[in-house]
């Protein structure tokens, strides 16, 4: 069993988590700049003002990737850096940063994968209601159009929205990510519908403006993994659990955000619970929301175990036992999520599939030999990749894998307390130290995963 010869090996980052330069060259505040300034929101009271200072150190970061044979880089654009007023006048100095970055990537033989939106909404648009405002799809289309026109000559791979589930589930429902709202269910559904429309509009704009464009979409949600793979009832139960969209809110479900985009319908169980809250004209909107995609992507870190409880399709989640391996931030280590997630997603959506994020945070530090030894991370990635390869061997069309993240960075509400990088960042000096896992990943890429 092997990965395809043209398998896409990459690393991923996001603008707010690495760039810093929060008010430089005409950038306006994003909702994350404002959220960090509120007391008690960020675990270590930090912010993204400097982060990894990637805005000034991108050349070093790109060179590190090139030296380690990383040929694909997924990054996002800061909307308020490009359009400080959210719409309207383009900030030339901000756009110039991405020109420099893209050119540098291409000079190093690295294919740029541009995420249009990875959470840093211009604060001025949030003040107008953000995703609740019906104009959002227009704003989003305008912003995407600017990226297409400015960068589409060199960037051919675009990802519309990263993790709608977190944008709205964490930001508009649980209230633990920017902008920290706790909306009632009707408003949640409206915001989600506007987000889906924004995705669809962005796809159209990109197809229209970028020659030979390839478009992906990167939702998330912990895959459901059958407790006993050999038991067909558990497999069926896991499939059902994975795509369920009923319950208290569909904001964390896969299908509520993927079925409309890929299949042109809202999932039936979700409609039964929440259809009443959809805005007028939603059926018509589905035509706009469902646009051809070149890739279906998912960020997958962990899975939940599911067991059938009877022959009638009922199931339960089986908790991991005490002492089950966990990453530094407490997420369970569940390699089979990278088998069952991609497999179920392939079966339902039938689109070439890419893991747009996977990785783990470890308790990394620089040891007296000047190195960072992270055997846990190597073991984690090895085990997960083997499962991904198994899914490909069983017929799922798996095209690529992006490790999250290239660098240690600002981990949202957890600030700088979590280290997900292949490269260690000393935030006081901004010194980069490649971890053991970076050399190991370079080797995996060189061997196209044959040595796992
Ligand atoms: C994902 C986010 C990414 C990063 C990882 C650890 O949910 O997309 O920005 O924070 O988790």
Count of the domains: 1
Q: Enumerate the spans where pLDDT stays under 50 for 5 or more consecutive residues.
A: none
Bound small molecules, deduplicated: beta-D-fucopyranose
β-strand number: 13
Describe the protein.
With 452 residues, the protein is α/β, with parallel strands linked by helices. The protein has a single domain, classed as TIM Barrel (Alpha-Beta Barrel), CATH 3.20.20.80. The chain contains 16 helices and 13 strands. It has helices at 15-18, 31-36, 54-67, 79-82, 92-107, 123-126, 136-151, 164-173, 185-209, 232-243, 255-263, 268-274, 282-289, 337-349, 375-393, 436-446; strands at residues 8-12, 72-76, 111-117, 157-162, 214-218, 224-226, 296-299, 304-308, 315-318, 353-358, 398-404, 423-426, 431-434. The strands form 3 sheets. An 8-stranded parallel beta sheet has the order 5-4-3-2-1-11-10-7. A 3-stranded mixed beta sheet has the order 6-8-9. A two-stranded antiparallel ribbon has the order 12-13. A hairpin with a 4-residue loop joins strand 12 and strand 13 (431-434). Helix 3 runs parallel beside helix 5 (92-107), helix 7 packs parallel to helix 9 and helix 8 (164-173) packs antiparallel against helix 9. The radius of gyration is 21 Å and the shape is globular. The relative contact order is 0.14. Residues 14, 17, 162-163, 166, 299, 357, 404, 411-412, 420 line the site of beta-D-fucopyranose.
């Amino acid at each position: 069993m092997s990965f395809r010869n043209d398998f896409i090996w990459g690393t991923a980052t996001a603008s707010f988590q690495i760039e810093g330069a929060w008010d430089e060259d005409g950038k306006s505040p994003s909702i994350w700049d404002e959220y960090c300034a509120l007391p008690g929101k960020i675990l270590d009271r930090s912010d993204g003002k400097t982060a990894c200072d990637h805005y000034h150190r991108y050349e070093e970061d790109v060179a590190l990737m090139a030296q380690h044979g990383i040929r694909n880089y997924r990054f996002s654009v800061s909307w308020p850096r490009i359009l400080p007023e959210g719409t309207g006048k383009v900030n030339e100095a901000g756009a110039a940063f991405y020109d420099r970055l893209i050119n540098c990537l291409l000079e190093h033989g690295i294919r740029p994968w541009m995420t249009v939106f990875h959470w840093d909404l211009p604060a001025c648009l949030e003040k107008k209601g953000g995703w609740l405002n019906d104009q959002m799809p227009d704003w989003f289309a305008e912003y995407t159009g600017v990226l297409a026109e400015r960068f589409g000559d060199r960037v051919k791979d675009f990802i519309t929205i990263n993790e709608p589930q977190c944008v709205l589930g964490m930001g508009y429902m649980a209230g633990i990510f920017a902008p920290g709202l706790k909306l009632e269910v009707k408003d949640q559904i409206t915001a989600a519908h506007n987000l889906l429309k924004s995705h669809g509009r962005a796809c159209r704009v990109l197809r229209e403006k970028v020659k030979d464009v390839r478009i992906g979409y990167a939702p998330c949600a912990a895959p459901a993994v059958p407790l006993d793979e050999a038991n067909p009832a558990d497999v069926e139960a896991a499939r059902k659990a994975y795509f369920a969209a009923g319950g208290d809110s569909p904001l964390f479900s896969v299908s509520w955000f993927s079925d409309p985009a890929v299949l042109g319908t809202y999932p039936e169980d979700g409609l039964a619970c929440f259809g009443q809250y959809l805005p007028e004209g939603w059926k018509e909107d589905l035509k706009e929301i469902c646009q051809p995609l070149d890739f279906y992507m998912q960020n997958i870190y962990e899975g939940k175990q599911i067991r059938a409880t009877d022959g009638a399709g009922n199931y339960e989640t089986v908790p991991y036992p005490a002492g089950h391996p966990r990453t530094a931030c407490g997420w369970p280590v569940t390699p089979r999520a990278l088998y069952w997630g991609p497999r179920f997603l392939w079966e339902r959506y039938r689109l070439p599939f890419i893991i747009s994020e996977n990785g783990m945070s470890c308790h990394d530090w620089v040891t007296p030999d000047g190195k960072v030894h992270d055997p846990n991370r190597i073991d984690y990635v090895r085990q997960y990749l083997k499962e991904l390869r198994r899914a490909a061997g069983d017929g799922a069309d798996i095209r690529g894998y992006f490790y999250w993240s290239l660098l240690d960075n600002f981990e949202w509400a957890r600030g700088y307390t979590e280290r997900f990088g292949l490269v260690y960042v000393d935030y006081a000096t901004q010194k980069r130290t490649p971890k053991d896992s970076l050399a190991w990943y370079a080797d995996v890429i060189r061997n196209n995963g044959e040595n796992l």
